[in-house]
Amino acid sequence: MKFRIYRYDPESGNKPTMRDYELDFESTQPRQGKKVLDALIAIKDTLDESLSFRRSCREGVCGSDGVNVNGTNVLACITPLEGLKQPIEIRPLPRLGVIRDLIVDMEQFYQHYRAVKPYLINLDPEPENERLQSPEDRAELDGLWECILCGCCTTSCPSFWWNPDKFLGPAALLQGYRFIADSRDQATNERLDFLEDPYRLFRCHGIMNCVEVCPKGLNPTQAVGKIKALLVKRAL
Amino acid sequence: MRMVGGARRGLDMWLAQRASAVYMALFLPVFLFCVLTAPSLDYTGWRALFLPLGIKVAALLFVVALLLHAWIGLREIFIDYLHCARCTMLRLSLYFAVAVLYLACLVWAVDILWSVR
Lengths: 236, 117
Hints:
The complex is a heterodimer of chains A (236) and B (117).
Chain A: E1 2-7, E2 17-22, H1 25-28, H2 36-47, E3 66-69, E4 72-75, E5 88-91, E6 98-100, E7 103-104, H3 107-115, H4 135-139, H5 158-162, H6 170-180, H7 188-195, H8 209-213, H9 220-235
Parallel strand pairs in A: 1-5
Antiparallel strand pairs in A: 1-2, 3-4, 3-5, 6-7
Helix pairs in contact in A: 3-6, 6-9
Chain B: H1 11-36, H2 43-49, H3 53-81, H4 87-114
């Protein structure tokens, strides 16, 4: 199998380049069911130990191995090699600064995430056990809490490419709505105040790249739509 | 200075863009129906179409909706693409220039519509 992988070593002083690798999966181990991450690990083990990438759980839960494969943001660990056009081009997630090879600087992404205060704000005295929720209220959070913050959606969003410092991006907005929608949260108004800005929320033009690439099948555009609907409801 | 945000704006523009789109979507089929059922579409027939005050008002509102929609759309494009260090001035100038142009179009449309008597 042929691979073309983005390589960048800041210490070398050289510009980033695409390097070609050829991996013979068939002869060494059965190829069936192999994922992109298996190939990356195999390349690092057998061909080029200087190749750097992030990975941890290797089953699509930790969200650390988001990369751009043949132009689409994916989690390397759950993307099958089969069916990918060769040479398989693997690049770091777009628009974020590259630290080395496939490792990107996620600081901007986390900054937006922190900005939406991703935690419950409830000023009532703490109950003895837990804050209860009806099954219906809990169901409101489905499709929101599953986000693993891999960054595939935000870095595929053209609005984020254009205004990465001001537009929060689909991941942060989805998490913002996750706490707006939570019946136990008491800061809904403040959260909506924060989002009512020409940049933070309203740079979303419903391009829906985020929905297309989300490895967990979530729908940030729908969450953005719900935030907009709440803003309208509040204003009228 | 730190970057500031939270302008409490955006919703009005977004809503106005949707409202203008709804009006245009309602007006166009009705207007098309009027055109298709008109007895003739020569110069006098076309003029006769715009004789009733109701059509004049509806057409003028359509022009208002169209210009508003277009202005907000251009504003979105300027915000998306123009953000250099000095672009605030450039954006402001562009908003102003386009607004003046569109207002001129609006006055012109009033003149055209009400010249039909």
